[in-house]
């Protein structure tokens, strides 16, 4: 049984993430979507909120579970016996950081492989940051996020809007 882990901040989950989950779930027997902290980012959604949104989407797949971990990705991958780390690559701009993280993770545990999936070109412009920016300025994010979580994201971002003078 080949177990994989798809880690990320998922702040919030987007259609780009969903596409990677769907494709990885077809390739591997079991996929854990793991919400982890990114020390380089400040999150909008709390860890448990990000897990809840992902759980609404994971319902579509029989071999996908959602988890969260407060610590090193490689440590968690070991703990759940995942031999493969899946990462999505959108553009060359993603490459440098992902390359560095893949090498660092291999240095920490050479038995766990990082594998990259190229984003579906229709989602290559989508990121959680773009979703938050567009939604906070009143733009339409319906094509960027899964239908199940669309309204929840709008509600969360709506509460953050400063009232107009
Ligand atoms: O969606 P993101 O923000 O690009 O995901 C980055 C993430 C969360 C996968 C990365 O920051 C991570 O692995 N965090 C856990 C802490 C860790 O293991 N850091 C060392 C990475 S080499």
Can you tell me about this structure?
The chain is of the alpha/beta class. The protein has helices at residues 15-27, 47-58, 73-79, 92-108, 128-136, 147-158; strands at 3-8, 30-36, 64-69, 84-89, 113-118. The protein has one domain (3-124): 3-Layer(aba) Sandwich (Rossmann fold), CATH 3.40.50. Helices cover 42% and strands 19% of the residues. The radius of gyration is 16 Å and the shape is globular. The model has no long low-confidence stretch (mean pLDDT 95). 4'-phosphopantetheine (PNS) binds at residues 7-9, 36-38, 41, 72-73, 101, 104-105.
Which secondary structure elements does this structure contain, and how are they paired or packed?
Elements: E1 3-8, H1 15-27, E2 30-36, H2 47-58, E3 64-69, H3 73-79, E4 84-89, H4 92-108, E5 113-118, H5 128-136, H6 147-158
Parallel strand pairs: 1-2, 1-4, 2-3, 4-5
Bound molecules: 4'-phosphopantetheine (PNS).
How would a crystallographer describe the biggest sheet? 5 strands, parallel
Supply the CATH class.
Answer: Alpha Beta
User: How much of the sequence is in beta strands?
Assistant: 15-25%
Average pLDDT for all residues: 95
Going across the biggest sheet, name each strand in turn: 3-2-1-4-5
Distance between the termini: 59 Å
- Identify low-pLDDT runs: none
Radius of gyration: 16 Å
Helix/strand-derived class? alpha/beta
How many discrete domains? 1
CATH superfamily: HUPs
CATH architecture: 3-Layer(aba) Sandwich
